[in-house]
Specification:
161 residues; elongated; Rossmann fold; single chain; mainly alpha
C-alpha cells in the first residue's frame, strides 16, 4: 500500500490493470517517466480512457476520491469495458504480429549497417597496428582479426535464406 512516505506507487499497472479492466473494473493509472511507470497510461490510452490517467500523486488522489463519490461515473466507465478491451489493439494478436514482423527488415538493416561500420573500424585498427609489429601489438592484432572473422561469419549467416 502506498503511504505518504513512499516515493513511488507499488505497481506500474501492466498485468494488474489488464486483469482489472477485463473484469470490468475502471482503473486509475499514475504515469511516470519509465517504461514500467507508463504501462497503465499505454493500456488506458489504447482503450480511449485517458481520463483515468494521472500525472502526479496529488492528481491521482483527487481523481480516486472524486470517482469514489460518483457512482454514476463508475457505472458509465464499467459499461462495455470487457468488450472495449477485447476489440482494442491490446488484444489484437494478429495486428501485433504484423507490426513486429514489419520491424524485422529495419532491425536487420541496422545490424548490417553497424556490422559494416565495425568491420571498417577493425580494418583501420589492424592497418595501424601492422606497421608496429611489436610483441605488444600482436595480441591486439589477433583479437581484431578474430573479430573480423566473426563479422564475416555473421554476414554469411545473414545471407542464408
Amino acid at each position: 500500500m502506498w503511504t505518504s512516505r513512499s516515493t513511488r506507487f507499488p505497481c506500474g499497472g501492466g498485468a494488474t490493470t489488464c486483469e482489472s479492466l477485463w473484469l470490468g473494473v475502471p482503473t486509475l493509472a499514475l504515469s511516470g517517466s519509465t517504461f514500467l511507470r507508463r504501462a497503465g497510461l499505454s493500456l488506458l490510452t489504447n482503450l480511449g480512457l485517458e481520463e483515468l490517467v494521472t500525472h502526479s500523486v496529488e492528481e491521482y488522489v483527487r481523481k480516486a476520491v472524486s470517482l469514489g463519490r460518483e457512482s454514476a461515473e463508475i457505472v458509465r466507465l464499467r459499461q462495455g469495458l470487457r468488450d472495449r478491451l477485447a476489440s482494442s489493439p491490446i488484444t489484437d494478436a494478429k495486428r501485433y504480429a504484423r507490426n513486429v514482423e514489419a520491424l524485422y527488415p529495419q532491425c536487420l538493416d541496422r545490424v548490417v549497417r553497424r556490422l559494416l561500420m565495425l568491420k571498417s573500424l577493425l580494418a583501420e585498427f589492424l592497418r595501424r597496428l601492422r606497421p608496429a609489429r611489436t610483441p605488444e601489438a600482436a595480441p591486439a592484432a589477433a583479437k581484431i582479426a578474430d573479430a573480423q572473422h566473426a563479422i564475416e561469419e555473421a554476414f554469411r549467416v545473414l545471407a542464408r535464406p
